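Incident review: delayed structure delivery

Summary: a single-chain prediction request sat in the queue longer than the usual turnaround. Root cause was a stuck worker, restarted by the on-call engineer. No data loss occurred. The affected request and its eventual output are reproduced below so the record is complete for anyone auditing the incident later.

Affected input:
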Amino acid sequence: MFCTKCGKKIDDTSQFCPYCGASTSEDIEELGEVKQENYIREEQPQYRNQEPQMKSNKVPIVVLGIVLVLVAGFIGFFLANQNQSSDVATSEVTTKEDTSAVTTEAVTTQATTEATTTEATTQTPYRTGVDYVFPYSNTEYLSKSQVAGLSSWDLKVARNEIFARHGYIFKNKSLQSYFESKSWYRGTRSGEISDDELNRYEKENIKLIKVYE
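Output delivered after worker restart:
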């Protein structure tokens, strides 16, 4: 070691400097204090450096937590709006379908009513006046709907009453008996009635009745 007074190198076991006589114990104590002071000075910056580092580590964690909360909230809000929009769209589609069904039913009912009214207006009712199956078969055309529902006997009578109007005397006893019971029938002809004696309504109506007869 060196003397702190004169700076000379002396033996480490010497208690006094052989050159200036200064005590070496004071130097040892001062040296220890200097080392301790240097140790403290060296240690303190280490702790000081660690504290900001710990604080800096906490900041990203807090920021990350805030970001996660915001993202979760946004996803929840988006899903809630999507479900609500889907419910509204489904409700609108159901309402439109119901409205369309009601409208279609109303149109169908109206069309059916109009068709029934038109048919009732334009067609002569079946057995009007009782004495005839079709009272106007010599002055208007019959429709398929008028003829289609008749029995085989009514079809035969309806076709032959056209000839009965011309006074034809029937060889079939059942037909002759039937027409003789009618007030309008006058049997005056036993011969066949030609097509030239029939008008266009009678000809077409005979053809139509034969289809169903």
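Verification: Residues 25-122 form the longest helix (98 residues).
Action items: add queue-age alerting; document worker restart procedure.
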